[in-house]
Amino acid sequence: MKYKIAVLAGDGIGPEIVAQARKVTDAIVAKFGHELEYTEALVGAVAIDEVGNPYPDETHELCMNSDAVLFGAIGHPRFDNDPSAKVRPEQGLLAMRKKLGLYANLRPVNTFKSLIHKSPLKTELVDGADFMCIRELTGGIYFGRPQGRTEDGQTAYDTCVYSADEIERIVRLGFEYAGKRRKKLTIVDKANVLATSRLWREVSQRIEPEFPDIEVEYMFVDNAAMQLITWPKRFDVMVTENMFGDILTDEASVISGSMGMLPSASIGVHTSVFEPIHGSYPQAAGKNIANPCATVLSAAMMFEYAFGLMKEGALIREAVDKSLEAGVVTEDIADGKKAYSTSEVGDWLENYIQNA
Ligand SMILES: NC(=O)c1ccc[n+]([C@@H]2O[C@H](COP(=O)([O-])OP(=O)(O)OC[C@H]3O[C@@H](n4cnc5c(N)ncnc54)[C@H](O)[C@@H]3O)[C@@H](O)[C@H]2O)c1
Ligand SMILES: CC(C)[C@H](C(=O)O)[C@@H](O)C(=O)O
Ligand SMILES: [Mg+2]
């Protein structure tokens, strides 16, 4: 089969980590006899610099006409440090998610045997932790309007909005995923304070009887933030709104051992996007030191979720596991031992797949 992939490398470490994922995907298709057609397009700060728009129309057209999108990261300190900038790289990412209808962001969190000692959490707490965070991605405070400032500029406001339909489709997905896993669903909200969260609970409780074999629990987000690192193994599938999911999954990366290890798949109405959960890590840009595994594992999710090619995805995961076992790792997880460069890790993974 031939698959069309839009490649949106973006800013900072984006191009370096996407290059490693491409080595890996090329090795996979060569081995299994598929064909990939990559087309690169602009997104983020580089797109602002080149065409003045962080998600240009041509990029959107390309994504719409692709079987999957492989995404690096966006963001640049020159915008992070200038709150007055009107056009911002992050708007490109949000526009892409909205226009492609990517309402569900699947962020699997698990441990890797060779990295368990890397987590600042106790080994017995993290060993065996394995859950899926399903983050709502096109609603909530990220997209609610009005957003802005009063005329005198001295007061600012954001609006959190969720409709019952938006809540239902993501919560249903949560129930369905829990059904395929250990049958436990944790719905995370702040229903003791927020009206949107109370609607989440109401809608979730209405759906609950349709899934009698799923054990459901409701948890306030502040409690969830604490439970996540004190007892991560209690979670199977977690479903939550946009901003809570963003924050909780960065926190969850300490379970795996590094931000550079957590992949994601954004799925929904049109095509799907595969992207690491981390950002453009500007301090590492151009230094060939960033961990490419989150992006490589996102490519594994692409084979599985977008193309239904499970063996291909599994071989990528195996390659990553073996590289960790062999100690061919970047500095974030090297633990004082020899650190390999981003491209050396990519080469090692490519070679492993070629010889598997
Ligand atoms: N999806 C995205 O494109 C995305 C996600 C988050 C942040 N951002 C943007 O990225 C920029 C930087 O934001 P930030 O510093 O808060 O978040 P970040 O995720 O870029 O980096 C935070 C920290 O995580 C670690 N880290 C991240 N990626 C890593 C990797 N591949 N290998 C090793 N360590 C890694 C580093 O210690 C880094 O200092 C901002 O402009 C932000 O808006 C973009
Ligand atoms: C860059 C930012 C808009 C983005 C988000 O908050 O969704 C990022 O943190 C992520 O997790 O993909
Ligand atoms: Mg984030």
Automatic annotation (TrEMBL):
Subcellular location(s) of the protein: Cytoplasm
UniProt: Mg(2+) binding residues: 222, 246, 250
Transmembrane segments annotated in the record for this chain: none
GO process annotations (BP): L-leucine biosynthetic process
Subunit composition and interactions: Homodimer.
SUPFAM superfamilies xref list: Isocitrate/Isopropylmalate dehydrogenase-like (SSF53659)
Origin species: Labilibaculum filiforme
PROSITE patterns: IDH_IMDH (PS00470)
Pfam family name, one: Iso_dh
Catalytic activity: (2R,3S)-3-isopropylmalate + NAD(+) = 4-methyl-2-oxopentanoate + CO2 + NADH
Residues the UniProt record annotates as site (Important for catalysis): 142, 190
Primary residence: cytoplasm
Binding of substrate, residues: 97, 107, 135, 222
Name of protein: 3-isopropylmalate dehydrogenase
Superkingdom, taxonomy of origin: Bacteria
Pathway this chain belongs to: Amino-acid biosynthesis; L-leucine biosynthesis; L-leucine from 3-methyl-2-oxobutanoate: step 3/4
This enzyme's EC code(s): 1.1.1.85
Similarity section: Belongs to the isocitrate and isopropylmalate dehydrogenases family. LeuB type 1 subfamily.
Role according to the record: Catalyzes the oxidation of 3-carboxy-2-hydroxy-4-methylpentanoate (3-isopropylmalate) to 3-carboxy-4-methyl-2-oxopentanoate. The product decarboxylates to 4-methyl-2 oxopentanoate.
A GO term from the CC aspect: cytosol
